Every structure is written in structure tokens, then in C-alpha cells.
Amino acid sequence: MATMNLQDIKKINHLWHQVYPYLAAHIMEHYRCDSGTVLELGPFSGGISRELARSYPQLDIIIAAEQPEVAEYLEQEVEDAGLGRSIKVEQTDLNHLGFADSRFDLIAFRGAFFFLEDGLLQEIFRVLAPGGLAFVGGGYGKNAPPQLVDNVHDESQVLNKRLGRKWVTTEELGAMLARTGLSENCRIEEEGGIWLIIRK
Fold first, then answer.
1. CA-to-CA dists, residue 89 to 62, 77, 85, 86, 167, angstroms
2. Phi, psi at 189, each rounded to 5°
3. Neighbouring C-beta atoms of residue 157, cutoff 10 Å
């Protein structure tokens, strides 16, 4: 997997600061529980986890990133937010997640289309607990105000292009689900972005 520029990651995470509450709320509408183990994946992690930790202190949250410098940056963000006791940060290969089977009740992966391949999707399903939910994809969340979306959209597009985002159609996602045998466990939601809603 190609190394991403840390400064661009920081820029896009800062740009999306006001979006994360809407994404967290969107996810929790599906999860419908105020406790459990949570995994947020990828270099664009942190914002959702911080919102969840503040609103749902009973959640046990881990952020996982692949690049060591990204994991270090995300850990500093957690500490600066005063949430070091609520959120842990770990480094792991995204295609070979360093977690036990069925470990997490909730998995969130915003910006997944930079990375999403059959193996990663299968890994997400492997570490998802029975009865758990994974929310994987990209977008602003269904209740993000149009003005907020307009404010971040153009710069997000520029940064996404620099970071190497792959554009994935719903047809391609459907084919991936068929290949991985996850079609019965997953549906594609197009409200507030494009998301795979995976249940186990």
C-alpha cells in the first residue's frame, strides 16, 4: 500500500473537524448501543472516535493505522483532546489486522475507498463480533448541513486526489461483496455518502 503524505492527512482531518459529529451520529443510528468495543480504521481516523468517546464514555475504542508516523500523529491528537484513557491507538497492516477474531462490536472506516480490497473487507468481517456492525465507506453523514458540505467539498477533492483516492461505484462494491461471500451480511447505503453496512 502506498505511503500517504502525513501533511495532507493532517489537512483533510482538520478540514473535516466539523463533519465528524454528523458521521458519529449517523453511525450510532445504526449501532443503537452505548457500550461495546470499537475499532476505527485508517489514516482519517480520530474524529469519529473522539466524538464517540465524548458522547458514549462506556465504549472501549481502538484506532488502528498502518503508517507508524500516522499512528503517532493520531495518538497525539487523542492525547491533546484529553481522551488518552478512552481511546488507544495501534499500528497494524490494514490487510492483516492484528486483532483476534470477533474482537469488535463496532467498526468504522471513513475514507475506506482509498484502501478497500477483497482482503481488507474479509479482515473487517473476521474481527467483527457476532451481532456487530461495521460502517465502511465514505461521505459526510446523512444529516451534515449542505452549507458545511459545500465548505469542505472542493478542498477535500483536491486533497483526496493528491492522496490517491480510488473512485468505487456501487456496482464494483456489489461485485466485491459477491466475491468475498458477504452479500448476505452487507447492504450498500447511499444516504450521506456511499457506505457498506455490514452485520455479522
1. 6, 10, 11, 10, 28
2. -110, 135
3. 11
Please, what is the average pLDDT of the chain? 94
The cell numbers describing 150, all together, are: 459545500
Helix (H) or strand (E) holding 55: helix 47-55
What are the two backbone dihedrals, phi and then psi, of residue 143, each rounded to the nearest 5 degrees? -105, 10
Q: Which CATH superfamily is domain 6-199 in?
A: Vaccinia Virus protein VP39 (3.40.50.150)
Element (H, E) at 187: strand 186-189
Label residues 44-69 b or e (16+ Cβ within 10 Å = b): bbbbbbbbbbeebeebebbbbbbbee
Cβ distance 62 to 38 under 8 Å?
yes
* Per-residue pLDDT reduced to its tens digit, 34-67: 999 999 999 999 999 999 999 999 999 999 999 9
Angle between helices 118-127 and 170-180 (to 10 degrees): 60
Q: What pLDDT digit, counting tens, does each position of 148-176 carry?
A: 999 999 999 999 888 888 788 899 999 99
SS3 26: helix
